[in-house]
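Possible race condition, two jobs.
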Amino acid sequence: MTKKNRLLLRGRIFGAEKPSDVVLEDGRVAGIVPAGQSPADFGSPHAIIGPTLFDMQINGAGGFDLQGGQVTVDDVYAVSEVLARYGVSRWIPTLVTGLQEEMEHGCRVIAEAARGARMRRVIPGIHLEGPHISPLDGPRGAHPKEHVRLPSLREFQRLQKASENRVICVTLAPELPGALRFIKAVSAQGVLVSLGHHAATAAQIRAAVDVGVRLSTHLGNGSSPMMHRQLNPLWPQLAEDRMHAAFIADLHHVPGDALKTFVRAKGHRRSILTSDATSLMALPPGIYTFAGAKVELRSDGKICLCGTDLLAGSGVPLLQGVVNAWRCGAMSLPEAFASATTIPARLFGVPAPPNCTRVGRPANLVLFEVDARTGRVQQPTVFLDGTLLES
């Protein structure tokens, strides 16, 4: 903190037309007034002040991977620290299709990391993205075919036991044999069931929703690259008012025009923004080995198999996705922030990140500027529970 533990932050709160000065004393919000002429410690009249974020799908970050049998508690802590520097204060670790023993190991490690009171708030649960997904090329995405398997309540109970009952979301393909029985049973236990990496018909999607499905995982991805223009899995999920939909708003997985159309169809109150970040998120551009293949992380965060434009994961932070959704016209800035904070928290039944500017409360906010030409978010300034994080 500066002199007398007082800081002045300047920016447009949630993208308001006029900037404000947020005064912090000892890490707490002491007041909010119209922006003055005195120098600010952080921000400018062009900066944006928003809440910290909730990312429902994180596979890794900063070179730390949550997948496989070697992940450690320290890896989970490291991912959390990387995400915090990019404004994410709540996140759901996501384990993808793999050997049952490795997925159980991941569940045990994440459960151990989340035992403390603070980390329990930061990590409200675990998302299992697989292994009960389509074995078909295209819908399966990058998930290893040899580990895809049919829905099994017995296996789910083993994973849930390993996680100390922290699994709160399961992504599966509803067309698989036994899927409806699995959905009904798992939903009855309070676990959110989501559709993803599938090739279901409209009738199969409706049947899954009838027995408990409430979400689409990264809609617009995890599907066949060649589909019938009308009879495909996208439209029934967009049209189903009982379902929310999550979108990867990096503008690589879902281009801006598609995102704008999807959100208009689903409605912003049922739209969730996620990064679906991999271990390459927050690393410098370059050539890396990822999931056993050589990939290129480009300067815009796009990750491709070397020598191609084929996507190989996501490397764009959620805060950039919020700005992308706003700048492409899919949402207003307050709507985009809601889709990355209160809307997913409400769906999962967990606390949302705290109000960023409530007077008297510890500061929980992210302050950043956007390059007007490129739309890129500059490195944000982040306060968590009144503490300024080092960038």
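Job #2 (started ~2 s after job #1):
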Amino acid sequence: MRALPVETASRLSGRGWRMFAPLTRRHRRALGHIAIAFPEKSYEEHEAIARGMWENLGRVFAESFHLDTIAREGRVSFAPGSEPEKILPADRKFIASAPHLGNWEAAAVGMQLAGARTAGIYQRIKNPLVDEYVRSLRAPLYEGGLHAKHTDAARKVLAHVKSGGAFATMGDLRDHFGIKVPFFGRPAPSTPFPALAARTLNVPLIAAAIVREPSEGQHVRFRISLRQIEISRTKDREADVLAATAALQTAFEEFVREKPEQWMWAHRRWG
């Protein structure tokens, strides 16, 4: 994948995933989730969304080896109304959270374009050689450090934000120890960390979506939408975090509804 041109790698991987992934049990799971989220749509429409999802995921896999090319060739831009100078604070101290939509790996490219010194947390790959290689491709985009997920990672990224940086994290995965808030009309265990961190540090909480928007025959091109999430700072911290977490998930749902074929429906979001 790394040796191929970015468009070729993305296209071949997307076609392969679209062809073979529907043969797995996860395809049936995805169809079940799509049917719950969009009961008004037909089975054929559900199937089209699911197959589009697999193609997008195949493309994301290949594109992950070309993040430097994506950044260098200007393949990431901001949607009208989401320009950093309109949404982000001037000091670029904020917490950003995004769903696994479009190519979420390109979020770090967008944060660089916005002038933010971004820190991130990632899940280690079991094979240490593969883990080191993949990390080496992503780390240059995280000026504030790319930390493996463990007990010390949260402290490091919070310290980074305090010192004038930003923190970007994925917020749509199921969190066994999270709080349940609505997502497509069903209670979904969700991480409170983005809302809690933003409230604690008194910085803005930003919902972000990185969607694939092909143009001029190119499929490896992305547009970022940003939305500030309101955070109350009352005496009831728990209620404030719950409300902000619910608002963040509502923003995610709205992003997904616009591009349903680009979200990970096979994930057990609701438990």
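The first strand starts at residue 76 and ends at 78.
Logs attached separately.
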